[in-house]
Structure formats: C-alpha cells, structure tokens
Amino acid sequence: MTDPAPQLRLVGADAPPPAAPDATDTVDAVDIAALRARDPAALAACDGAHAARLRTIALRFTASVPDAEDVVHDLFARLPDALAHYEQRGQFDGWLTTLTIRAALGHVRHARRTIDSTPAVLEAIPSPTVDGDPLAGRRILQALAALTPALRDVFVLRAVHDVPHAEIARMLGITPNASEVRMHRAVQQLRAQLGNLR
Q1: Which of 11, 43, 88, 166 has a CA positioned 20 to 30 A from the CA of residue 181?
Q2: Tell me: the pLDDT tens digits for 120-161?
Q3: Which of 77, 100, 91 is nearest to 29 (CA)?
Q4: Distance CA 80, CA 146 (A)
Q5: How far apart (Å, rounded) are the C-alpha atoms in residues 189 and 6?
Q6: How far apart are CA 154 and CA 124, in angstroms?
C-alpha cells in the first residue's frame, strides 16, 4: 500500500521549520559538552530555546497541558543522560523533537489515556488557519481529536512531522504496513468529517 498524499496539512500548527544548517550553526549553538556536564546555565538556555515548541509537540499526543508539561520537564531532567546517545549528526532540535515524540507516546501508552477533546484542551493547541479562516483550523483540530489514538498518532507523525512509515512502525511497535493502513484510515475519516475543507 502506498502512502496516501493527504491534502490536509496543519499549516501553522507547529513552529516554522528550522533553518538549513550551515558551517556556523554548530548543533543550534547549544553547548553539548556543558549539557552533558549538567551545567545549569546550559540546561536553562536549552530549555528556553526549545521547551515551548516541544510542549506543543507533546500536547498533540497527550492532549493534556499538564501531561505535555510533564513530558517536557522529564525530557529536560533526563537530557544529560540522553546526550550519551546523541552523535551530533543532523540538527539538535530535530533530535529533541524525536525524543519528545517518543516520550509523549510512552506517556500516553503508560497512562492508557484517550484524547480529551474538551474545549479547554483544544484551546491550548495552536490553531492552524485554512485560507485565513481560524474556524476551519479549529474544525481540523476537532476532527483530529475524534480519531482513535492509534490513527491520530500515525497521522500526526506522518502528516505533520513527516516521519517515514518504517520509523513510525519502530516507534509504535507496529509493522510498516499497519502504519500505512492507519494513515489511510485516518485520512479517510478526516476527509469524511471535514468534507470540502482543503
């Protein structure tokens, strides 16, 4: 089964993509050695530079502001130890994004929670706009909230974060084919709920 090209994109739902790395951008100007050494100033600087974006990502999976904050807090508490596995290839913020997604998925699996689509939770997620219409963005978020966690996790990883199905399968403990099937079902359900919204 091929990956359906979803016509839904959550434009504006996450931070702008990071700039392409250049020779002066050494791991997003983060002092990895200081972080590994648990330097409080380096940890505070890293938190200040990345925590808000990571909370937004975690919120997409936990659907709870306190849980998203817990995920990010725990991530930064364990960051010096996690850096033992960081090989400084690629961008540091991409590596943090992957850690956050894995931590949020683990949190949801451990808590065995389903998404809470109450207005308070949906208000906490930055609303995308579709053709300048913020209400259309709210409809997209509500449609995402109506998906089962299994479908929503795959959809968010694939459509929003552009994670390949093989990596999604590894992260979720499923086969790549199951990831593709879940993506297809999620897209079908979203299209049915959103109708002509593009």
Answers
A1: 11
A2: 444 555 555 566 666 777 787 788 888 888 888 888 888 888
A3: 91
A4: 37
A5: 12
A6: 21
